[in-house]
């Protein structure tokens, strides 16, 4: 008889504490065998990069700075 999850995998309990949360986040981000997780992580990193690039384009580093 198959498990209730459908994939035959045990469902992990939610992490308790910051160390367990960080451990599960690291495991989530570094699991090479899970396509959906990798897609989610890569889309998140892409969105963060787009956000940074769009928000840093307003800064002109060559402009003269205001004198106090």
Folded structure, characterized:
The chain is mainly alpha-helical. Helix content is 51%, strand content 0%. The chain has 2 helices and no strands. The longest helix has 22 residues, at 35-56. The N and C termini lie far apart (75 Å). Mean pLDDT is 76; it is low at 1-5. This is Mitochondrial import receptor subunit TOM6 homolog. One of its GO terms (cellular component) is mitochondrial outer membrane translocase complex. InterPro entries: TOMM6.
Report strand %.
Answer: under 5%
Radius of gyration: 21 Å
Could you state the order of secondary-structure elements as H and E?
HH
Average pLDDT rating: 76
Q: What is the overall shape?
A: elongated
Tally of DSSP β-strands: 0
What's the SSE blueprint?
Elements: H1 18-30, H2 35-56
Short description:
With 68 residues, the chain is mainly α. It has helices at residues 18-30, 35-56.
Identify the notable features of this structure and list them briefly.
single chain, about 70 residues, mainly alpha, elongated, disordered N terminus, Mitochondrial import receptor subunit TOM6 homolog
């Amino acid at each position: 008889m198959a498990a209730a999850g459908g994939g035959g995998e045990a469902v992990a309990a939610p992490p308790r504490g910051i160390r367990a949360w960080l451990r599960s986040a690291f495991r989530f981000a570094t699991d090479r065998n899970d396509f959906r997780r990798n897609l989610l992580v890569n889309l998140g990193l892409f969105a963060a990069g787009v956000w940074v690039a769009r928000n840093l384009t307003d800064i002109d580093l060559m402009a003269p700075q205001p004198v106090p």
